[in-house]
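Quick check before the chapter quiz. The format below is the same one you will see on the exam, so make sure you can read both the input and the output lines.
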Amino acid sequence: MLTSAIGFIGLGIMGLPMAGNLIKAGYTLFVYDINASSVAMLTKLGARACSSPKEVATSADIIICIVPDTPHIREVVFGAEGVAAGIAAGKLFIDMSTIDASTEKEINEWLVKLGADSLDAPVSGGENGAIEASLSIMVGGSKTAFERALPVLEVMGNKVNHMGGIGAGQITKSCNQIATALTTQGIIEAFTLAGSAGIDLVRLREVMLAGFANSRALQISGEKMVRKDFSPGFKLQLYRKDLRIARAVAADASLHLPGTGLLFDEMDSLVSAGKGDLDFSALIQIFDNQNG
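Here is the expected output.
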């Protein structure tokens, strides 16, 4: 019998299906989002609506949050009606957003003073992974907090890894985003070359999937490029934010990551052109424009 009450803040493309999977698993869920329609969808499944992050923190034993960026998580935690105003000793806050590691450390220090604990647990796998509960979840924080959270996290993901202390999950996510972005760049350039030679991209992708070039990026983003379907599984503006964080981490460590800088600039140009709500596979449009 499940006894823990779970709070869930942030019911966007990722958060909504993740919260839904927790309800299906039998957890009592207290939910909050600025989008009333998302909250209504979950209340129909049995969730209990809350009026603020503070109310979520007051009602639940474990509080999960997944929001777009660092300013949003700071408002969720430190705002007048935030988690810190409602959390109590013995509770656990899990941030599944992708933000900077320094903010995660600040949140943890604040909550520990209140007798609570926190984990940073960003995810990879996109909307499909959230729907299918097949996310990769990268966790930073104490081993004790991780073990407490593990049964909950395993409802949402099939690969849950403890990477170290607070902030380690966010650093791992930055590494994941760098590798995925550069892999996607390679697919785009391969498709551009094939297209210029008149090679059918459907067949090209099939051949590449059968060889060493196979990857999740080719399977998912490659298919979207072939079909020119850029409906968002993961929005360009969010990926740009992730690479901004990765570049900042690299700069703090005096590291030169030229590929990361290149991909950030490409994403930034499309976001500046008003295409930030498209899927990040829309990066191929830059090459289509440059090469006619």
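If your answer matched, good. The CA atoms of residues 240 and 265 lie 9 Å apart.
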